[in-house]
Every structure is written in C-alpha cells, then in structure tokens.
Specification:
Layout: H1 24-46, H2 54-63, H3 66-81, H4 85-106, H5 109-117, H6 123-138, H7 145-175, E1 178-180, H8 191-197, E2 204-206, H9 223-235, H10 239-257, H11 263-268, H12 276-305, H13 314-326, H14 339-355, E3 358-361, E4 373-378, E5 384-393, E6 403-408, E7 419-426, H15 438-455, H16 471-481, H17 488-494, H18 506-516, H19 520-538, H20 549-559, H21 577-580, H22 590-607, H23 613-622, H24 632-640, H25 647-652
Helix pairs in contact: 1-2, 1-3, 1-4, 1-5, 4-7, 7-10, 12-13, 12-19, 14-15, 14-17, 14-23, 15-16, 16-22, 23-24
The chain binds zinc ion (ZN).
Pfam family, one: Peptidase_M3
Keywords: Hydrolase, Metal-binding, Metalloprotease, Protease, Zinc
Organism: Nonomuraea insulae
Length: about 650
C-alpha cells in the first residue's frame, strides 16, 4: 500500500492537497499520527531546559502539528462539501478526540508556565503572544485540576453533540424534502428546474435549503404546496431541539467555570464588540424600525393577495408586489447571469480592476469532485499569489449555504502561499448553461471577498493568516466585495444574455435597484430574529435549564420584541447550524456588526472614485493583507481614516 498522502507535504504546486490520492481509509491513521506527533512536539517545548523565548516557545508551537493540520484541513473541507456515510462515521469518531487533543495542549501546565515567561519587543510577535495567552486562559489554563477535568468533559460532550446536530441536519435536507408525484404541483418553477428534481422512481424531490424561507416559496403557485414546503422547512430535524437545549446548558456551565456570567459574555470578550452591552445597544437600535418596516410590507402584501397572508405566502406575494409596484421580475435577470461568465467577467474582473490580479484555470490540477475547478491567481507584476478552488454546485453530500475555507494557510514561517476555496449551493441543471439568480450572484461576490482576504494575506505566522480575525470582523471584507455586483462597469462586463450576448437592459438594472428597497423589512427582521434567538440561548446562566425548547424559542422572540408571526427567524433552533454546528454561537450578531464597517467602507470607495487600482491597493495594503496580525479596528481606522459610525448602515437598510 502506498504511503499515506498526509504524512508528507503535498508535492503539487502550492501544496494543493493531492485529492486524487486521498482515500477514506487514510484519514484515521493520519489523524492518529498527527495528534501523536504534535503532542510529542509540545512536550519537547514544555520540557525545554533553555529559558523560554518567543522562538523556542511560541514560534515552535506555530511549527508544530503539521500532519494534523494537513489532515484536518482536508477532512473538514470534504466533510462539508462531499460527505459520505464513511466520512460521517470518521467525523463522529474523531471530533471528540480532537477536542481532547486541543485540551491536552491548552491545559498543559508546564507549557503554560513557559508561555507566561515569554517576552518580545517585536510588534507582530507581541500581538501573537497576547493571542496565545488569551487562547490559553480562555481554554482554562488557570483553572484548578478538578475544574479542568470538568472542562474537558464538557468540551468533549459539546463536540459530540455538535456533530450529531450537523449530521441530522444534513440528513433532513433530503429526508424532509418536499416530494410530489404530479409535476403540476410544482407549477411556477421553471421547466429546467422541475426536470432537475425528477428522480428515477418518477417522483419530484425539492430538497430543503438551510434557511426558513425556501426559495421555492417565491415561485410555487399552489398555495397548499407552499404551506407543505414551509412546514417541512420549519419542522425539520425535530430531535435537534433537544440537542440545542442541552448544548446551551453545557455552554453556560463552561462559561461559569471560566468566570463569565454567560456563554454570550464569554464569547464576545475576545471579539471587537467586547461586551454583551455593546451588542445589545446596537441590536436595540434596529429592532423597532425593522419590525415597523416589516409590518408596512405585510400590509402591501395582503392588499396584493386580497386576503390575510400566512408566512408561506410572504415570498410569493412579495415577488408579486415587486412586479406590480416596480415592474420587476426577478427571473427576467437569470438569462444574463451565466455561472462561468459571472465568475470570469464579473467576480474576477472586479478583482483585476481593483488589485491587478489575474486568473488562469489550471485544468492540470484537480479537486475531489469533477465539478471543482482550480484557478491560479497571479499578482499584478506576474508573480504567483495562490490558488483559488471553486465548488459551485449543490449535491446531496454537501451541507447547505455558501462558505470559504482555506486548504493551505499563507505564512512566511513555512514559506507557503494560500490555497483558498469557495463553496456555493447552485442547482446544477440537467443540461445547458447554469443560470444564477441575483441572490446567487451576490453570494458569489460575497464568498470571493473572503477568498481575497485569504489570498492577499502577508503575515509571518499561520495562527493569524488571512481570515483568522474575530468573527464579528470576518464578514466585513466579504460584505464590501458585494458592492461590485451592480457597479456599472462590472455589471456591464458580465451581465450578458447567455444566448445572444446582449447586455442586460439598463432599465432592468434600475428596476432591480428600486425593487431591492422593498422587502428590506422582511430581511432585517428574519435576520434580527435569528440573532436574538442565538443571543437568548447563550445568555442563559449556569444551572438555568430549558425543558421545552420550542416554548423557550417563542418566549425569547417575544421578550426581544421581534416576534412577528409572518416573519419567522431565518433559522429556527432546530436548524440553526451556525450556532450549534458552526463557529457562530453567540456570534450571529456578527453579520450586522460587520455591516457597520462595510457600509462605511462602501462610502469610502464611492467618495474616492470607486473601482480603481489605487482604491483597491489601499484596501488591500491596510486591511486585506494584514489578516489577524494586528488589531482589526486599528486596521479599519488605517484604511478609513476614522472610527466607524452606524449612520451609513441605517440609511442602507432604510432604518434611519
Ligand atoms: Zn461570509
């Protein structure tokens, strides 16, 4: 049997993982050897006889665990994008082991004693040293032995529950899918879409996407089918309610052990928000106006429908109002949004204009699935920058949503250039070109904003590479990149009819912009309701247990004054993967928190002439290239020239 491909660095360009050689049976031995190797390295650091220095302690820790890092990076990328029963089994087995492993390092007393003695004059080193100290304290390094034992048990149980939550959810997207036998029931969806849903047994299966308001609700003309789809969506994976309540309780207990009144307080302490009060003050300014806007919209929808609408009618009639009031039909845009053109002549084009980078497809380099494409990214002077890997299509083995992840972290320490990837969940047509919706185009630009943050990283240490910034900051650069979707020069370059090559009519763009203002109330309320739900679960104090999670959810929304039966949270508790299976617990507020910086930055670009190389270079130099190597709000100030204010955000959301 050939050597396990994880045991040595990849010899492909940019150390792209050798996907063609990786088989499922490689993961467990690689995890095992990776953890053992890192523990031995850490023991050597902790038991060193030389006085502790930055080089022999912090930099040495940064150098440790290479096999584990390579293995985990590939494994979790595959577990998200191309999971199988075998991968799910491995994940179940390995998740608690990884938690134990990370605790074994962070709760190593000899190591912690040495870290506390390190000092350095260098600014980048000193920032990293502080990060390490904070990581260790937050992981329980200062607790007593019995407290650490309890902490280890809590972490392990949380990791097992989180895996269970995410796996039930992945199963629910197809197990709770809408199934019809008569295609007439799918009236409203376009024919290619209907065809793509047909199964061998003659049924049609519409899988659930991960949020409450399924896109089909905007098109399905049969009201009862809409109701069924909606009820399947909000009721999926019901066992997850109990898992979520359990997790919230364990997180509260862990926060108390670490000296915080709640998991929310613990979580925000190392974010740019820093305190629970700061987050609540901001959310407080948004709730009232958002609910008022949504109620106004509801009246317009009821008028359009001619009856009192239900939540499953909202997207359908909001589409109708947009057509009637703004003469705008969202589906009229799709022929102008062909996937390849959107990337090559839109997403990449904007990046070339701003940053001088160019993209070349590398068909000699492959991914883990035939639909994955690899691009080499060259800098303005022709030098090699990194790889961009794109996996655009939905499949049963991929989790919902869209995201960016790194396959190789940039760092000068290892002399590595970044390999970053974007995942989308676009339905692959049975044949012909892939035409995107406007929302999908927006998502493509958004995720590519994260990719640029990873690609432009110019830092010494992997711990602070690229997007390794606080969660309530990380969405900011990606949100800024959305501004180019409708930027005239960019749009004119990519939005061309897939058959005729005709540019998108200017009036369609104008109508889109006008129509976008409608439904902002809905979007803000569904987002804020999810945020406040996350917040309520994670403000529980230790010992407060929740016997009836659905009642808790309803009560939390009521108490936060965001309860509005026609607009449910974007995610209910049972499918809120961000907070129970992702890294966003007590952190869903981050999107709107980052949007303050985003709105300020968009204003800056507009004030300074928009899509220019000079503007791009300024943003890249002060912000994108810094990764997490300096204080994020300092980086923002260096870019913007002042502190951020909430004004531009309120104006944008129609809340001022
Ligand atoms: Zn994002």
């Amino acid at each position: 049997m050939a050597e396990n491909p994880f045991f040595a660095p990849s010899d492909l360009p940019y150390e792209l993982p050798p996907f063609a050689d990786i088989r499922e049976e490689h993961y467990l031995p690689a995890f095992e050897r990776g953890m053992a190797e890192q523990l031995a390295e850490v023991d050597a650091i902790a038991s060193g006889t030389e006085p502790p220095t930055f080089a022999n302690t912090i930099a040495a820790l940064e150098r440790s665990g290479r096999i584990l890092d390579r293995t985990a990076t590939v494994f979790f990328s595959i577990a998200a994008s191309n999971s199988t029963d075998g991968i799910m089994e491995i994940e179940k087995e390995v998740s608690p082991q990884l938690t134990r492993h990370s605790d074994a390092i962070r709760l190593n007393r000899a190591l912690w004693a040495r870290i506390k003695q390190v000092s350095t004059e260098d600014a980048e080193e000193s920032w990293l040293l502080e990060k390490y100290r904070d990581d260790f304290v937050r992981a329980g390094a200062d607790l007593s032995e019995p407290e650490q034992d309890r902490l280890r048990a809590l972490n392990e149980e949380l990791s097992t529950l989180s895996t269970a939550f995410s796996q039930s959810l992945l199963k629910a997207s197809t197990e709770s899918a809408l199934v019809v036998t008569d295609p007439k029931e799918l009236d409203g969806l376009d024919e290619a879409k209907i065809e793509s849903l047909r199964k061998d047994d003659g049924t049609y299966v519409l899988p659930l996407l991960n949020f409450t308001a399924q896109p089909g609700l905007a098109q399905l003309t049969d009201r009862d089918v809409r109701r069924r789809l909606y009820e399947l969506s909000v009721g999926r994976a019901p066992g997850n309610f109990g898992v979520a309540a359990k997790m919230a309780g364990l997180r509260a207990e862990r926060a108390a052990l670490l000296g915080f009144p709640s998991h929310a307080a613990y979580t925000v302490a190392n974010q740019t928000a820093k305190t629970v009060e700061a987050v609540e003050e901001m959310l407080g300014q948004l709730v009232g106006p958002a609910v008022r806007n949504a109620k106004k919209e509801a009246e317009a929808l009821a008028e359009q429908a001619g009856f009192a609408i239900e939540p499953w009618d909202w997207p359908y009639y909001s589409e109708k109002v947009r057509q009637a009031r703004y003469d705008f039909d969202g589906s009229a845009m799709r022929p102008y949004f062909e996937l390849n053109r959107v990337y090559r002549d839109g997403v990449f084009f904007a990046a070339t204009k701003l940053y001088g980078v160019t993209f070349a497809e590398r068909s000699d380099l492959g991914g883990y699935h035939p639909d994955v494409t690899v691009f080499e990214v060259l800098d303005g002077d022709g030098s090699r920058l990194g790889l961009f890997v794109l996996d655009p299509y939905a499949r049963a083995t991929k989790r919902g949503g869209a995201w960016m992840n790194n396959l190789v972290d940039q760092s000068f320490l290892f002399g590595l250039r970044p390999v970053v990837m974007n995942n989308l969940n676009v339905t692959k047509p049975a044949s012909g070109p892939t035409l995107l919706t406007y929302e999908e185009v927006n998502t493509a630009f958004h995720e590519f904003g994260h990719a640029l943050h990873g690609l432009f990283s110019q830092v010494r240490f992997p711990r602070v590479s690229g997007t390794s910034v606080p969660r309530d900051f990380v969405e900011y650069p990606s949100q800024v990149n959305e501004m180019w979707v409708t930027w005239p020069e960019v749009l004119a370059n990519y939005a061309k009819h897939h058959e005729t090559g005709e540019p998108m009519p200017a009036e369609l763009v104008e109508k889109l912009k006008a129509a976008e203002k409608f439904n902002q109330g809905f979007k803000t309320v569904e987002y804020l309701a999810a945020t406040l739900l996350d917040w309520s679960w994670h403000k529980l104090a230790a010992g407060e247990s929740v016997a009836d999670p659905e009642a808790f959810e309803a009560g939390a929304l009521e108490a936060a004054q965001i309860a509005f039966p026609l607009v449910r949270p974007r995610y209910r508790t049972n499918y809120f993967a961000h907070i129970y299976a992702g890294g966003y617990s007590a952190g869903y507020y981050s999107y709107i928190w980052s949007e303050v910086l985003d709105a300020e930055s968009v204003e800056w670009f507009k004030e300074n002439g928009g899509l220019t190389r000079a503007n791009g270079d300024h943003f890249r130099g002060e912000l994108l290239s810094r990764g997490g190597s300096i204080d994020p709000l300092t980086a923002f100030r260096n870019f913007r020239g002042r502190e951020a204010g909430i004004g531009p955000l309120l104006a944008r959301r129609g809340l001022s």
